C-alpha cells in the first residue's frame, strides 16, 4: 500500500468538498487523493472516528493485531498525517474545523464555550458537522458529555458519555451510541474513542496496551458494520502516543522520527458492501 502524506486540518475541508457542504474555506486543503478515490466509489456520507493516540508508528506496530482496522485500510488509503497539537482538545478541534490551534484557540473543552461566548459566529470555531447542519443536512456527534453539550443548538443529534475510570466501558458506550446514531442516516457523524490514550498513560506493559488496541479494533469493526454502503470513513489519530520514553525504549529510527514529528495514522475507506 502506498503511504500518502497530509495534515489533520485537511480532513474537514475534504469532507466539505466530497459532500458539498458549504463551509468558509479553512486553513486546511481538500486531499486530492481522497477526492479521486471517493468519486470513483460514489461516497454519499462520512464518518470521522478519532482514535485518541493512534500515532502512525503505533498503528504500524498494532496493525497485525487490529484486524478490523487492517481490513478497512486494505480497501482504502493510508496517510502519514501531520497533527498540529500533542494534546487532545486542540488536536480534535483542528480535525473537526480544519484550522490550526492558534487559529481556533481551543486548548481545552472549556475553551469551546469561552471562545464561542466571545464570537459565536466565528467560522474558525465551527466544525464540519455544524456547517452540514446549517446547510440542512443531518449531522451527529458521539463524544464525552462536556464536549457533546457544546453542540447543543448547533446540531440536532449529539450523544454524550460521562467520563469514566472504566475506559473500556466508556468506549463501548460511545460505540453503542454511534451505532444508534447511524440508524438515523446522518450525512456526517463524528466519534471519539479514548481507550488507547488512557492506557498509554496508565499501562506499564505492551500487553496492557494491546488490550486497549484490541478493544478499539472491536469497536471500529462494530461501527463500520453498521454503516450504510457508500459511507466514507476517516479513521485517524489526534496525536502521537503520550509517554514516549516508556513506549519507545526499543524503537528504531523511523518510529522515533514519526513520534517526534507528531505523525498520526489516517485511514480513509469507503464501505462498498451493504
What features would you describe in this structure?
There is one protein chain. The protein is an alpha/beta fold. It has one domain: Alkaline Phosphatase, subunit A, CATH 3.40.720. Helices cover 46% and strands 18% of the residues. It has 14 helices and 8 strands. It has helices spanning 11-19, 32-41, 56-62, 67-74, 88-97, 101-104, 109-118, 128-134, 145-149, 167-182, 195-202, 206-225, 244-247, 253-260, and strands at 3-7, 45-51, 77-82, 139-144, 157-161, 188-193, 231-237, 263-270. An 8-stranded mixed beta sheet has the order 1-3-8-7-2-6-4-5, with helices on both faces. Helix 9 links the parallel strand 4 and strand 5 (157-161). The radius of gyration is 17 Å and the shape is globular. The chain starts with a strand and ends with a strand.
How are the elements arranged and paired?
Elements: E1 3-7, H1 11-19, H2 32-41, E2 45-51, H3 56-62, H4 67-74, E3 77-82, H5 88-97, H6 101-104, H7 109-118, H8 128-134, E4 139-144, H9 145-149, E5 157-161, H10 167-182, E6 188-193, H11 195-202, H12 206-225, E7 231-237, H13 244-247, H14 253-260, E8 263-270
Parallel strand pairs: 1-3, 2-6, 2-7, 4-5, 4-6
Antiparallel strand pairs: 3-8, 7-8
User: Percent helix among the residues?
Assistant: 40-55%
CATH class: Alpha Beta
Measured between the Cα atoms of the first and last residue, the distance is 25 Å
Detail the poorly predicted runs: none
The total strand number stands at 8
Largest sheet: 8 strands, mixed
Number of domains: 1
Amino acid at each position: 500500500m502506498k503511504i500518502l502524506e497530509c495534515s489533520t486540518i485537511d480532513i474537514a475541508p475534504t469532507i466539505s468538498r466530497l459532500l458539498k457542504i458549504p463551509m468558509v474555506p479553512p486553513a486546511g486543503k481538500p486531499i486530492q487523493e481522497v477526492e479521486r478515490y471517493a468519486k470513483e466509489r460514489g461516497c454519499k456520507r462520512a464518518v470521522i472516528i478519532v482514535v485518541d493516540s493512534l500515532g502512525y508508528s503505533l498503528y504500524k506496530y498494532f496493525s497485525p493485531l487490529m484486524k478490523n482496522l487492517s481490513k478497512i485500510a486494505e480497501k482504502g488509503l493510508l496517510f502519514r498525517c501531520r497533527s498540529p497539537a500533542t494534546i487532545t482538545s486542540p488536536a480534535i478541534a483542528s480535525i473537526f474545523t480544519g484550522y490550526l490551534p492558534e487559529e481556533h484557540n481551543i486548548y481545552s473543552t472549556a475553551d469551546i464555550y469561552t471562545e464561542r461566548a466571545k464570537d459565536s459566529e466565528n467560522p474558525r470555531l465551527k466544525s464540519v458537522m455544524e456547517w452540514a447542519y446549517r446547510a440542512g443536512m443531518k449531522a451527529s456527534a458521539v463524544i464525552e458529555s462536556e464536549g457533546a453539550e457544546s453542540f447543543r443548538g448547533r446540531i440536532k443529534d449529539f450523544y454524550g458519555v460521562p467520563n469514566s475510570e472504566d475506559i473500556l466501558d466508556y468506549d463501548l458506550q460511545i460505540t453503542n451510541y454511534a451505532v444508534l446514531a447511524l440508524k438515523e442516516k446522518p450525512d456526517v457523524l463524528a466519534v471519539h474513542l479514548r481507550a488507547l490514550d488512557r492506557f498509554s498513560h496508565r499501562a506499564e506493559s505492551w500487553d496492557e496496551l494491546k488490550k486497549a488496541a484490541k478493544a478499539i479494533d472491536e469497536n471500529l469493526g462494530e461501527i463500520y458494520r453498521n454503516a450504510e454502503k457508500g459511507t466514507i470513513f476517516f479513521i485517524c489519530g489526534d496525536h502521537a502516543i503520550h509517554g514516549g520514553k516508556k513506549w519507545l525504549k526499543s524503537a528504531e529510527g523511523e518510529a522515533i522520527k514519526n513520534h517526534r514529528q507528531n505523525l498520526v495514522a489516517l485511514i480513509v475507506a469507503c464501505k462498498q458492501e451493504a
